[in-house]
Amino acid sequence: MAERETQQQQDEPVGTPAAGSRTFQIRFDDYRAEVVSTGAGLRMLERAVDGKAVQLTESWPAGTKPPLSAGLVLAPWPNRIRDGFFYFDGIEHQLELTEPARNNAMHGLVRRREWQLEEHERHRVKQSIDVRLQKGWPYPMRLSVTHELDEEGLSVTHTATNTGPVPAPFGLGMHTFVRAGDAPLDECTLELAVGVRQPLDPERMLPEGPCVPVRGTEYDFSTPRSLKGVWMDTPFSSIDVDTDARARQILRAPDGTATALWTDRTFRWVQVFTADPARGQAYPDRGRALAIEPMTCPPNAFNTGIDEIVLEPGETWSGQWGITSL
């Protein structure tokens, strides 16, 4: 799901000011986070351990465009819609092609917009945005996202309310780059609680064929495996939840520092992407970096119907995910 922008696709270079963007800081005990108003993005998350700040996510300079859409909310659909076209409730829709090189509509409608501040306390911040009628999208919605810190780390709560008069399709994702302190990615291990992967057409990054089991394959991370030289841009599902109804994907550094991204049952998919300079997609000042991206549905879900959410008029959906230091 990561925004695989080639140079010619980028509409502005990394490091340019994000006009009007505001930054909100939140704290709880050893945890500190910063959330921005543009795309309601998580700019950074860290935890103080023995007086040292341990980075749990990748970051970017405040007031600038996040590289590779890091930290941003992707809604009312995540990932890609083939040809920007979908058919819903008897009506054909043609969205703007925001990934013209691959002829896709990508990452929804709110990642480059300013969200409205609703509440800001020391340990939490809530923002909201109205998705209005626009090209190919006749379904008004109100979205909210609350970033909150407690003794377990960060929890992020999303809601989506259909404010229109007819049923509406919906999906949501997050563009979260995780980090285990300062360890280079190739020195870290990854553990994934997933059962299947969705093969993608490498040219258009759209689903190609049915899901396949990961057990015993190169995509099997059921036990911690080294990320040295590993590249992925892969949607996974059949997510295995723990006894607390949360699934955990874990990045671990050689010194034992570990970052876990957890999701509740509403997020039935997770996409794993490796930013890699060898593929022209370096994360600034880090080179190789790892995105673990919670999604409610896979790419092109509005056409396949796989895990597509349908909101009735006035109905509200809610989902939650978070990050903790282990």
UniProtKB/TrEMBL annotation:
Pfam family, one: Aldose_epim
Chain intervals for the UniProt region annotation (Disordered): 1-21
SUPFAM superfamilies: Galactose mutarotase-like
Top-level taxon: Bacteria
InterPro entries the record matches: Aldose_1/G6P_1-epimerase (IPR008183), Gal_mutarotase_sf_dom (IPR011013), GH-type_carb-bd (IPR014718), YihR-like (IPR037480)
Cited PANTHER family: ALDOSE-1-EPIMERASE, GALACTOSE MUTAROTASE
UniProt name for this protein: Aldose 1-epimerase family protein
